[in-house]
Recover the amino acids of this structure.
């Protein structure tokens, strides 16, 4: 069932647009962003290989279940709560950014808090479903939306407005050393493998990861498009004027035939779906991590009825998200996100190394 | 025996009890006349008894259709199912003979799910005739058939059919336990049984396929599904069913490949249209007219210029009219039905727009919604899809296009969350490598 792994990877690598990755990279375009485009696939490939290798030794077990086998309880609970907060926050940034985006582009008259409440309630309902259901939802959303994204990308790359000269100018800064912030932004594209921390529970025992080389290549292509296409459209200098860089970039295109003229609407609807799915997926992971901390919790992948604890945990998540919107503004959100990206990268490296060492130790002891 | 049977039943004029006597023995017989075939009673009992070519006791012992009844508690039940009770007065043994004569429709044509080419015959209301059709279309020795009866009063006989080689044991167990746990007084229709089997009081989508076509049943059996036949209803239940089964007309298997694929795509497109179009109309007219290209936005605005109220009232007026029209044409007798559609069509088509009640675009929207709803091949799905547009309309009134997209996402979650007898209801089936196993298989019992 390699395709389910692929969907998760695609979901995260497309969601980078909502996590301010293009903006962070573009504002560092003269100071190391280009080189980090080359470094990120290497780091991503190593992490993907290590993580899948470690997880495939524990068929049907999630990250937390594996830790429970090897580590003391307090350490598992502590790390689980930390991971849960990280997962909650990764989705919160996206959904808050999108609520503001809807307010900017779709319904300028409505209050973004109300929009956020609607989005959050929908995502929380979806996240309270079983793990198996979550995977089906991810699958169908990616399959429905991917052709539209491919169409938009195709239109952009083929557009005569894309100025190849400015792309070349920026590409020449490849010799500048990458900084920690650009690397952490660029590696986000490759981070879809980390969903395996929970979804490994679903994979059948005889499962084998195939075609792993695809992921770094695909991620690299997405990364290059993410970074260079806006530069081609807005020029080397104009490009860092926008925070929602890709929404503005897609607005520079028009479709001459058909009902809808402005590409931005297509883009927004597609990313609304992806945002909801991403939020759902992240919150579901956070929820399962917290549920695993309690004594006597049994991991279930397809319970016919959602237990009450799901609703309580997700209600807390949703409320916290709304409070986050109320107490921060766009500028603060952007700042927090760029620090969060760095924290995320180190958390990921630590957890991948941890699980890798555990799996090797087990191999040796057997 | 006869006195006791008369005591068991109320004052029933149709209960017949006789005592017959010939040279060497005497018997008591009892039966409920309308339920039994009188000709069979005379052919099997009275004539051989009086002719005495062979001793009637020998008949009773040799012919396997005479079943010995040991338990007097079963008398009532046997009589009510069209059996004749016979008592040999010398030995005291009691026998029953089935002479039931059940009125049912004779080998009917398919009416609900018709196919242009392909079998034209539908299931019968009699279980034996239905079974005859299914056995003929699916002649394998592995066909397992189990008998059940549901309803405390109606005691409706059911047959559960499955192919022993292919059937999923977890589904079969699930169906068996659900059937034996049903506690109601009466069951007469397939839809009624479906609700009892699902066990949920409020369901949005049908999770059991109801069909009248024996060829569909044979195909389902071959795929390892469980089929339930009900006496007195010409519809069978197929379970588990997935959403995609409901979108599949049986003729897709019989006709040319490419056209049927196109038809399937058209069906999915029309299901999306029928759900979203009214909501999108509201969202675009009232919130985001800039979504469309300028010329189109202008022509929509121009056609709405005579309409004095907001778009959602317009939508509610038109949908109310179309739903009542559909409902009236189903419920009315066939002869008046056509009048209703003509009158309604006239109003919907022209007059409403000329009177300035609704815009002409809205008329197109309404008719697209209605027509694309009829494209869905299975009636129960088409019925539930009719409802889906209303929650979307409400969310689009308040949140515009965002509301429509969020609503669709919620429908998707609900669909993916549904299980039909433990099997996923809405799931894309890609290639599954049997050596590798399926996702989520690890922990299933």
């Amino acid at each position: 069932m390699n395709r389910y792994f692929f969907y998760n990877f695609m979901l995260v690598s497309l969601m980078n647009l909502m996590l301010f990755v293009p903006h962070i990279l573009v504002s560092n375009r003269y100071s190391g962003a280009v080189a980090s485009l080359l470094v990120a696939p290497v780091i991503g490939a190593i992490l993907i290989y290590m993580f899948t290798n470690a997880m495939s030794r524990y068929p049907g077990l999630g990250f937390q279940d594996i830790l429970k086998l090897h580590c003391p309880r307090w350490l598992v609970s502590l790390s689980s709560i930390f991971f849960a907060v990280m997962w909650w926050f990764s989705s919160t940034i996206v959904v808050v950014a999108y609520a503001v985006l809807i307010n900017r582009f779709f319904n300028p008259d409505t209050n973004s808090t109300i929009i956020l409440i609607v989005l959050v309630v929908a995502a929380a309902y979806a996240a309270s479903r079983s793990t198996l259901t979550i995977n089906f939802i991810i699958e169908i959303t990616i399959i429905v939306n991917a052709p539209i994204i491919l169409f938009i990308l195709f239109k952009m790359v083929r557009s005569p407005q894309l100025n190849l000269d400015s792309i070349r100018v920026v590409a020449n800064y490849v010799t500048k050393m990458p900084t920690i912030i650009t690397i952490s932004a660029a590696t986000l594209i490759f981070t879809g493998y980390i969903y395996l921390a929970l979804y490994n529970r679903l994979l059948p025992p005889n499962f084998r990861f195939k075609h792993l080389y695809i992921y770094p290549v695909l991620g690299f292509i997405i990364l290059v498009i993410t970074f260079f296409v806006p530069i081609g459209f807005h020029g080397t200098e104009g490009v860092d004027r926008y925070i929602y860089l890709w929404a503005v970039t897609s607005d520079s295109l028009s479709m001459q035939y058909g009902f809808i003229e402005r590409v931005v609407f297509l883009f927004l609807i597609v990313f609304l779906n992806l945002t909801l799915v991403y939020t759902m997926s992240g919150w579901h992971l956070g929820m399962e991590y917290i549920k695993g901390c309690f004594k006597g919790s049994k991991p279930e992948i397809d319970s016919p009825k959602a237990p009450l604890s799901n609703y309580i945990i997700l209600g807390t998540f949703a409320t916290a998200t709304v409070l986050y919107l109320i107490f921060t503004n766009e500028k603060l959100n952007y700042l927090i996100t760029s620090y969060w990206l760095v924290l995320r990268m180190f958390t990921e490296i630590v957890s991948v190394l941890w699980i890798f060492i555990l799996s090797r130790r087990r191999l040796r002891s057997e | 025996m006869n006195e006791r049977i008369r005591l068991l039943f109320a004052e029933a004029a149709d209960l017949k009890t006789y005592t017959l006597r010939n040279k060497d023995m005497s018997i008591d017989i009892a039966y409920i006349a309308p339920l039994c075939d009188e000709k069979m009673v005379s052919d099997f009992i009275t004539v051989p008894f009086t002719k005495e070519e062979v001793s009637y006791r020998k008949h009773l012992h040799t012919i396997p259709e005479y079943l010995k009844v040991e338990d007097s508690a079963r008398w009532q039940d046997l009589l009510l199912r069209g059996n004749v009770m016979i008592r040999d007065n010398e030995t005291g043994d009691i026998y029953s003979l089935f002479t039931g004569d059940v009125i049912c429709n004779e080998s009917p044509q398919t009416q609900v799910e018709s196919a242009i080419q392909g079998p034209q015959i539908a299931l019968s209301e009699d279980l034996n005739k239905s079974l005859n059709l299914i056995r003929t279309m699916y002649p394998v020795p592995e066909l397992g058939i189990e008998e059940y009866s549901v309803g405390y009063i109606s005691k409706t006989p059911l047959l559960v059919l499955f192919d022993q080689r292919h059937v999923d044991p977890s589904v079969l167990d699930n169906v068996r336990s659900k059937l034996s746990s049903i506690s109601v007084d009466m069951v007469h229709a397939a839809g009624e049984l479906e609700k009892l089997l699902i066990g949920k009081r409020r369901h949005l989508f049908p999770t059991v396929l109801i069909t009248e076509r024996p060829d569909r049943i044979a195909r389902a059996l071959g795929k390892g599904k469980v089929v339930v036949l009900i006496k007195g209803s010409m519809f069978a239940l197929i379970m588990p069913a997935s959403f995609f089964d409901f979108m599949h007309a049986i003729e897709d298997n019989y006709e040319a490949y490419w056209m049927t694929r196109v038809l399937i795509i058209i069906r999915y497109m029309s299901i999306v249209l029928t759900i979203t179009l009214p909501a999108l109309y509201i969202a675009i007219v009232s919130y985001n007219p800039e979504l469309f290209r300028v010329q189109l936005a202008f022509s929509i605005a121009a056609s709405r210029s005579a309409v004095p109220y907001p778009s959602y009232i317009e939508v509610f007026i038109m949908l109310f009219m179309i739903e009542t029209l559909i409902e009236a044409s189903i419920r009315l007798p066939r002869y008046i039905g056509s009048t209703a559609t003509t009158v309604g069509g006239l109003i919907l088509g022209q007059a409403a727009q000329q009177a300035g009640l609704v815009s002409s675009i809205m008329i197109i929207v309404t008719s697209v919604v209605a027509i694309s709803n009829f494209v869905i091949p299975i009636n129960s799905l088409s019925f539930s899809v009719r409802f889906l547009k209303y929650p979307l309309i409400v969310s689009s009134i308040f949140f515009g296009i965002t509301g429509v997209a969020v609503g669709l996402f919620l429908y998707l979650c609900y669909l993916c969350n549904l299980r039909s007898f433990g099997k996923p209801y809405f799931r894309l089936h890609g290639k599954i490598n049997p050596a590798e196993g399926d996702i989520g298989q690890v922990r299933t019992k």
Q: What stands out?
A: Chain B has three domains: 2-98, 127-241, 256-424. The radius of gyration of chain B is 29 Å.
